[in-house]
Every structure is written in C-alpha cells, then in structure tokens.
C-alpha cells in the first residue's frame, strides 16, 4: 500500500484544486497546460529511448492483448454487476454505469453517457457514471502500489 500513496495523493490534490473554488487558474493549468506538457515530455522521453527491436516483440504484443482482454472483461463484469444492481433495486439503477468502472477517466463515463442518450435522450448518466469511473482509478492505483511493493 505505501507505494500507491503518491498516486492516490495526487488524485486527491487535483480534486482539492478543482473543488475548493479559489484556485481556478491552478486548476485550469493542471487540467490543460501542465497535463499536456507532461504528456508530451513523457511521450518524447519514452519514444527516444525505445528501440524497435525491443518494442516490436511477441512479448509486447502479448501484453497489449492481455490489456485488451482485461479491459473487455472489466467492462463486461461491470455491466453484469450493473444488471444485478438493477434487479436488486427494482429497476432504479441503469446497468450501463457498470461499464464505466474501468479506469479510463473520463472517457468511459462519456461513452456511457453518449450511448445511453442515443437510446433515451432523457438519460443523464455522466455524473452517475463518474462514481464507478473514479473508483476504477483508485482501485488501479492501489493495485499498482501492491504490485510495486511485491515486485521490488
């Protein structure tokens, strides 16, 4: 768990910046300029150090395929549990929010919103889908911390 504390701490710090209401410029900078610059520098540094002989291997393809399987299984499991919650709540819960349980913030919640509004224009699931979405991020951070602790 100690290895995941910085990940969870940065998530909470970002929420604090956004929700406290007095740091609008910092919040916007963190969401836009800082995030974009960090993404660019991370992409350049990883790309500059990666050789094609190291990257294009069967092991890399296996890892990508396992990630795809994990993403699909997570989405299917979330939909199944969402369906169970719908039955147990007497139909008050839309099972599509289960698909947002993967840690692809905020894209998974947006996809749930778009698909649900395509079926019923009166559906507004975005904020409800963000709950499982953020829970997926926290779960991923804790799992990464556990893996870091066990593998180091």
- Largest sheet data: none
Q: SSE order in H/E notation?
A: HHHHHH
Strand content bin: under 5%
In which range does the helix fraction lie?
Answer: over 70%
Low-confidence stretches: none
Instruction: Kindly name the structural category.
Output: mainly alpha
The span between the termini is 13 Å
Number of H/I helices: 6
The average pLDDT score comes to 85
Based on DSSP secondary structure assignment, what is the total number of beta strands? 0
**Rg from C-alpha positions?**
19 Å
Shape: globular
The domain count comes to 2
Protein name: Sodium ion-translocating decarboxylase, beta subunit
InterPro entries: OadB_MmdB
Subcellular location: Cell membrane
GO molecular function: lyase activity
What does this structure look like?
This protein has 152 residues and is an all-alpha fold. The protein has two domains: 1-50, no CATH class; 56-152, no CATH class. 76% of the residues lie in helices and 0% in strands. It contains six helices and no strands. The protein has helices spanning 5-19, 24-49, 52-55, 58-88, 107-119, 126-151. α1 (5-19) runs antiparallel to α6 (126-151). The longest helix has 31 residues, at 58-88. The protein is globular and about 55 Å long. The two termini are 13 Å apart. The relative contact order is 0.12. The mean pLDDT is 85. It comes from Acetomicrobium thermoterrenum DSM 13490. GO terms for molecular function: lyase activity. This is Sodium ion-translocating decarboxylase, beta subunit. The chain crosses the membrane at residues 34-56, 63-81, 124-151. InterPro entries: OadB_MmdB.
């Amino acid at each position: 768990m100690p290895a995941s504390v910085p990940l969870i701490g940065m998530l909470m710090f970002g929420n604090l910046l956004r929700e406290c209401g007095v740091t609008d410029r910092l919040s916007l900078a963190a969401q836009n300029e800082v995030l974009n610059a960090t993404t660019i520098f991370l992409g350049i540094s990883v790309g500059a150090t990666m050789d094609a002989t190291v990257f294009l291997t069967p092991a890399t393809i296996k890892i990508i395929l396992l990630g795809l399987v994990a993403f699909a299984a997570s989405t299917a499991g979330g939909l199944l549990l969402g369906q169970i919650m719908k039955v147990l709540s007497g139909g008050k819960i839309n099972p599509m929010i289960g698909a947002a349980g993967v840690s692809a913030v905020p894209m998974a919640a947006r996809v749930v919103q778009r698909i649900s509004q395509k079926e019923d224009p009166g559906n507004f699931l975005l904020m409800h889908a963000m709950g499982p979405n953020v829970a997926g991020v926290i779960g991923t951070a804790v799992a990464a911390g556990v893996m870091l602790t066990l593998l180091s």
